[in-house]
Design a protein that fits this description.
With 146 residues, the protein is α/β, with parallel strands linked by helices. It has a single domain, classed as Rossmann fold (3-Layer(aba) Sandwich), CATH 3.40.50.1000. A five-stranded parallel beta sheet has the order 5-4-1-6-7. A two-stranded antiparallel ribbon has the order 2-3. Strand 4, helix 4 and strand 5 form a beta-alpha-beta unit. The longest helix is centred in the middle third of the chain and has 18 residues. Bound molecules: magnesium ion (MG).
Length: 146
C-alpha cells in the first residue's frame, strides 16, 4: 500500500512565501526552498518511519511550476528534493516524483486503498484510492499504526 504526499500547500507552505507567484513567473526557485513547513515534521517523520516498517510505501507526487522550461524544471526539482532532505531527512522515500504541472496523480496509485494527501480538491476527487485534505494528516496516519 502507498501513502502519497503532495508538497505545495500540503506539507510545504509555498503560498505563504512573500512574492511567491512573481518569483515563479520569473523562474526563480527560491520560494520552493524558503517554504516553511505546514505540520510538525518530527512527528510526521516518526509516524512515516513506523508505517514504512509496517509495509507501507511512502512517496511524493508534486507538480513543477505552471509556466516553465527545462532549466527551471531542473531548479525546481532540486529545490523540492532539497526541501525534503532538509525537513524530512530521516524519511527514506520509496519514490519522489516531481512531475509536470497538471499531471494526473493517479500515476502513483496502484491500489484502491492507496492514500493521497493533497490540498487541491480536484486531485483528491480524481484519486482512485483514499484522498484526504491537509487538516488531518497526522490523525489519519496515526490511525494506520498497527
Ligand atoms: Mg498542492
Amino acid at each position: 500500500m502507498r501513502i502519497c504526499f503532495d508538497m505545495d500547500g500540503t506539507i510545504a507552505n509555498l503560498y505563504g512565501v512573500n512574492g511567491w507567484l512573481e518569483m515563479l513567473i520569473n523562474h526563480d526557485a527560491t520560494p520552493y526552498k524558503m517554504a516553511k513547513t505546514l505540520i510538525n515534521m518530527n512527528v510526521l517523520a516518526r509516524v512515516l518511519n513506523i508505517l514504512q516498517k509496517q509495509g507501507y510505501e511512502i512517496g511524493i507526487i508534486s507538480w513543477l511550476a505552471k509556466n516553465s522550461n527545462e532549466e527551471y524544471d531542473e531548479k525546481v526539482t532540486n529545490a523540492k528534493k532539497g526541501w525534503l532532505k532538509k525537513h524530512l531527512k530521516s524519511v527514506h522515500f520509496d519514490f519522489v516524483k516531481i512531475v509536470e504541472y497538471g499531471t494526473d496523480k493517479n500515476i502513483v496509485c496502484k491500489n484502491y486503498e492507496d492514500i493521497l494527501f493533497d490540498d487541491e480538491k480536484h486531485n483528491r476527487e480524481n484519486w482512485n484510492g483514499k484522498a484526504y485534505d491537509v487538516n488531518n494528516i497526522l490523525e489519519v496516519l496515526r490511525g494506520l499504526v498497527a
